[in-house]
Amino acid sequence: MKEPIQLFRPEIDGEELEAVRQVFESKWLGLGPKTAEFEKAFAKFIGAAHVVGTNSCTAALELAVRLLDPSPGDEILVPAITFVSTAHVVVYNRCRPVFVDVDPATLNISPEDMRGKISPKTRAVIVVHYAGRPAEMDRIRGIAGGIPIIEDCAHATGARYRGAHVGAFGEFGCFSFHAVKNLTMGEGGAVAMRDARLSERAKRLRWLGIDKGTWDRTPDNKSYWWEYNVDEIGLKCHMNDILAAIGLVQLGKLERMNDRRREIVRRYRLAFADLPWLDMPPEDDEIHRSAWHICAIRCRGVDRDDLSVYLREKKIFTGVHYKPIHLYRCYGWQPRLEVAEEVFPRLLSLPNHSVLTDAEVEYIIEAVRAFPG
Q: pTM of the predicted model, to two decimals?
């Protein structure tokens, strides 16, 4: 293989470039009409009442927590295996993350451990759809009762649970459009919700608390177009029209790109079925349809790091998703989480993206099968 095979790679071409060119010609690059168009289109796609575009999923998660108006010291449940921002946004809002172990098969939040972590101080539960596979939303909702649920859908754009798109089961659904995600803008995010009042507040909070966006204050509005109010302090974390234009093109490609990811995982599954040292993630079924953002295999009886180095020498890049968050020093001493700590040393993510060629997939399969162990 002449060129290295990347773990992630976006599928972008002239369509995205043309969309950006049109935004450049409009001379409106910031928060404006394309952002509103994307928000409307994405809301329709996922079946949400309202979507607010942000500059990252981290910002979307932070807004979701803030919209709950938590009090300092409130507890928010967070699964142990996820990207650190899922827990960081809890601390940003002066709350305490309570780390929950994961299901040994899916690595999604464990409903059983979650049940034991709920307390009178619990303000919310953040549910991550790990690798793109929907979590057990019916059971989670049954356990949570009236406790608000924030869905972290950073891996899961295009994923469906019982036929409905993830992100619309909880009070909030947060999405990532980072450079390596299934739907990419290079960077970006969104928060979905049912409540129109909270949606309007989220739009203010993403723009420093200002009650009118710049687009809303253009000279078309003849009545004091230059004036605005600031009733609470927000952040500057809005989407812009360059990102939104790319996202609109990507949205039209998403189902096809996810189907390609699904096909690659199917080929891995068939090829590795007889390897005693390799476990594949669970298959899709009639309830769970994964977006397959990540294909995280598990090593059994062989060294994960040796396999990673071996594949890198063959120009195949891999990754590890993720070190359990409760083990990071910034969170101090935390109770042991048995499943997360046992599975972490065995996790390895194989390349899985829509621009992998059939030849590259076969090369990866051959390399993995030839690993001496």
A: 0.95
